[in-house]
Design goal:
Elements (H helix, E strand, L loop, with lengths): L1 H5 L5 H41 L3 H11 L2 H14 L5 H16 L3 H32 L6 H58 L7
């Protein structure tokens, strides 16, 4: 397999680089999403118990102790509540957009790889075909079919490699986007329960999320 890739020419290098970057993003984003989902569920469950007791000082301390993006969002919101400011709704909404951006981080790079990889493969094939036909011209058309076929299949290696990387990146991108949407939806559902609880206890009107 390595020997086949080597014969693909210099453009196989950026294709391999794209595959490494794509795999790194897939692993890192999957880990982050699983971690955020599990940690948020546990965090919001404990925070609900604290808020039910109306111990906002403890709630703030708990948010600081947890120290991750969801707890940071709630920390700022709770600080507004402690100061009896009704604009905590806007604070929560602004900070929630930061959560979306954090979860979607590097997914655009993955989508770019999915689009660029097959183009790199096609470019490699075109340059390979040009070289093959230049050789035929140099030999005044006396090149045998085996030599010409060998040059062509070597040129097609980059197309195959580019398509493999593109398919991997595209499937992973759709999967991760779906996971991001599900994670955000789950966090919002748990957060809304806290929002209504806070509204009831503090006589704030309107929804936060």
């Amino acid at each position: 397999m390595i020997q086949i890739l080597i014969k693909g020419g210099i453009l196989i290098i950026p294709i391999i680089a794209c595959s490494i970057i794509a795999i790194a993003i897939i692993i890192e984003r999957t880990y982050i999403l699983i971690k955020i989902r599990k940690k948020s569920k546990k965090f919001l469950s404990i925070l609900k118990t604290i808020i039910e007791n109306e111990d906002y000082a403890q709630a703030t301390a708990f948010c600081e102790e947890e120290n991750f993006i969801v707890s940071s969002i709630w920390k700022e919101g709770i600080e507004k509540i402690i100061k009896k400011k009704k604009d905590f709704k806007e604070t929560m909404e602004d900070k929630s957009s930061a959560l979306v951006s954090y979860l979607e981080e590097r997914l655009n790079t993955l989508a770019t790889i999915a689009h660029v990889s097959p183009l790199l493969g096609l470019l490699g094939t075109v340059t390979g075909m040009i070289k093959a036909f230049m050789k035929v011209e140099q030999l005044a058309g006396r090149a045998d079919a085996a030599a010409l076929a060998g040059g062509i299949w070597e040129a097609l290696v980059t197309t195959a490699a580019g398509l493999v990387v593109a398919i991997l990146a595209m499937v992973a991108h759709h999967y991760l986007v779906d996971k991001v949407n599900n994670t955000i939806k789950e966090i919002e559902e748990h957060s809304c329960k806290l929002v209504f609880l806070i509204n009831d206890k503090n006589d704030f009107s309107g929804n936060l999320l």
